[in-house]
Specification:
By secondary structure, this protein is α/β, with parallel strands linked by helices. The chain is about 40% helix and about 15% strand. The protein contains 24 helices and 19 strands. The strands form four sheets. It has a seven-stranded mixed beta sheet, with helices on both faces. A five-stranded parallel beta sheet has the order 2-3-4-6-5, with helices on both faces. The protein is globular and about 85 Å long. The termini are far apart.
């Protein structure tokens, strides 16, 4: 039976079943938990009031849309959530026609709704976009750009503001809720139109008094910002009261104009251990439902993020000029301890990557040393600012790029594949990458002393090289200087960042061949002197780098060879091909791309056999 035909009691039972299914699946597979549990009732309300067969359902970020997936033909496949070849943790039209748009980054939903509303208006169709957006996403400027146009165009769009942190407005009692809903209802709207018509014929003084009375009512509600932008506002309502949700959404739908429905929810609703604004429960690995404890024992090997965090703390203690920023990811980037210890020097600016990047420019100009701690996939959102506000000014801002390379189950919207390619063409920009704990510490010390724009990338989790016997000591970093880890015969493995570990592990599996191993260290500027020397001694080069092939490390080397007129050196790249990389456990994804060390060893052997 379609959701729209179910009774209220049936919908309440359905909400319980959905929460149980989500909890069971996420406890086994990992995924986003607290936000998606908190959104269950609102999503059921969306499906009860709107027609998913025709109305665009648009979820901001879409990590909270698990209930939507379960309500739209994916209940039986839900146990494959985030698994390689299974359903995505985000909305994806290739997976289901009921997923209107791909999403994985925040604050795009209202812009998408405006675009959909324009198309619906031009086509003259009876459809209405319905958006779900979290309060955190409301911190990004793109939302207000979209609201600004929507308030002007007046297209029918219903926006459900899922406020699960009480960061927009706290509950202010029954009077506010009654007034808010009443002001959105048909009686008030008719009265408002008649009053506006009447005021046109009254003296100016009477008009002034009437308008002031209406404004005084609106000031009681927390929605005045939206009202001033031309968006009707209803709320706050209880985002777990299905009867109230459905009643309110019906009112909003009938208004035929842009409306924001402000609903307050509890993260983790239905799973007591995770209820509330606990960052740990936002995204989780497999865990025991009874205790909430992770099933996977924590590794004794430090992650690259942990090494970054500890080293930056040491540097910040030594040098008061060091400052830093993150855009709503203090835990993920390792900046949380610095935010607590140095609240006047390290900042979380919420989901505002553009602002995060630009705001660090003046700090560099004023003599400080800023670090922008950010995921590779999210730095894409501040690209113009990197060029216009940092590189153009040649300012000493360091971009500490976490999650470079394949990130696993979050998939194609989050893979850190492009940062080398999109940063390398920028003038004044230096690109470097460490490959183990010692090199990370030394790279950060280099960055702290460097006075120009610099991007330093490192992977999610531990470096691949950890646990290997390293070839000699790691020297200090010098601008544009590579390091030859070991000499070899005939073939050279060129590693960049985590690619060094991949090269070392592949070399261990080579039979009858001893490749040279080069830690490139910098892809911009290249160590031209050493590369020219190595080109005379090694005729087969294999490039190991966790980034896109187009514009990547192999491209940089081939461009240099072409410029120098070097011929006779064959370059093979093991970088990512020109495609978006799907979701799944990192090892399974890498196996599908033939990037595991045993696969790479076979690929090298095959290439050498074909050449002989």
């Amino acid at each position: 039976m379609p959701v729209r035909e179910k009774s209220l009691s049936e919908l309440k039972k359905l909400a319980e079943e959905i929460r149980a299914k989500i909890l069971e699946t996420v406890s086994r597979n990992g995924g986003h938990l607290s936000s998606t549990l908190g959104a269950v009732d609102l999503i059921i309300g969306m499906h009860a009031v709107f027609d998913v067969e025709k109305d665009p359902f648009i979820f901001d970020v879409s990590h909270q849309a698990y209930a939507h997936k379960l309500l739209t033909d994916r209940w039986e496949r839900f146990d494959t959530l985030r698994q390689f070849g299974g359903i995505s943790g985000y909305t994806n039209p290739k997976e289901s026609p009921y997923d209107y748009y791909k999403a994985g980054h925040s604050s795009t939903s209202i812009s998408l709704a405006v675009g959909a509303a324009k198309a619906i208006h031009i086509k003259g169709e009876d459809r209405i976009p319905v958006v779900m957006i979290g309060d955190g996403s409301m911190s990004a400027g793109m939302v207000y750009e979209a609201l600004n146009e929507l308030g002007e165009r007046k297209y029918p769009v219903v926006i459900i503001l899922n406020d699960n942190e009480m960061s927009i407005a706290k509950p202010i009692g029954a009077i506010s809720r009654t007034l808010s809903k009443g002001m959105a209802g048909p009686f008030y709207q008719k009265l408002k139109k008649k009053t506006e018509s009447l005021l046109e014929h009254l003296p100016e003084s009477a008009t002034y008094i009437a308008k002031k009375f209406e404004e005084s009512l609106r000031l009681i509600t927390p929605g005045i910002l939206f009202e001033e932008m031309g968006i009707e506002y209803i709320g706050p309502i209880d985002g777990h009261d299905l009867e109230s949700i459905i009643e309110t959404l019906k009112i909003a739908k009938a208004m035929g104009k842009p409306v924001i429905v402000h609903a307050q929810t509890v993260k983790g609703k239905g799973y007591k251990i995770a209820e509330g604004p606990l960052e740990h429960w936002h995204g989780v690995g497999p865990f025991d439902i009874e205790t909430g404890k992770p099933l996977k024992k924590s590794s004794s090997v430090k992650s690259a993020t942990q090494i970054f965090s500890e080293t930056l703390q040491e540097l910040a203690e030594e040098d008061e000029r060091i400052v830093g920023v993150t855009a709503a990811m203090p835990g993920g980037t390792g900046l949380s301890p610095l935010l607590e210890r140095y609240p006047e020097r390290f900042w979380d600016v919420a989901i505002a990557e553009q602002h995060a990047v630009t705001s660090m420019g003046p700090l560099a100009k004023e003599g400080f040393k800023p670090f922008v701690a950010i995921y590779s996939t999210f730095l894409q959102r501040g690209y113009d600012q990197v060029i216009h506000d940092i590189a153009l000014m040649d300012l000493g801002v360091t971009f500490a790029i976490d999650r470079a390379g394949i990130v696993g189950e979050d998939g194609e919207t989050h893979q850190g594949a492009f940062d080398i390619s999109y940063l390398r063409p920028i003038p004044n920009m230096t690109l470097m990458a460490p490959w183990n704990e010692e090199s990370m510490k030394k790279a950060l010390r280099f960055a702290a002393a460097y006075s120009r724009p610099l991007a330093l990338r490192y992977p999610r989790g531990a470096f691949l090289a950890e646990g290997l016997k390293e070839a000699g000591e790691v020297p200090d970093y010098e601008l544009g200087r590579a390091h030859l880890l070991r000499e070899g015969e005939e073939i050279l493995f060129v590693g960049y960042g985590n690619g060094v570990g991949r090269a070392l592990r592949t070399a261990e599996l080579m039979k009858g061949q001893t490749p040279g191993i080069l830690d490139l260290r910098f892809v911009k500027p290249l160590d031209e002197t050493l590369i020219l020397d190595l080109a005379k001694r090694y005729r087969r080069w294999f490039i190991f780098s966790d980034g896109a092939r187009l514009g990547g490390v192999a491209s940089a080397i081939e461009e240099f060879f072409a410029g120098e007129g070097i011929t006779g050196v064959e370059v093979a790249s093991f970088e990512y091909e020109d495609t978006f990389i799907p979701h799944g456990k990192t090892e399974e994804v890498e196996r599908s791309l033939e990037l595991l060390p045993e696969q790479l060893a076979r690929r090298v052997a095959r290439i050498m056999d074909e050449a002989s």
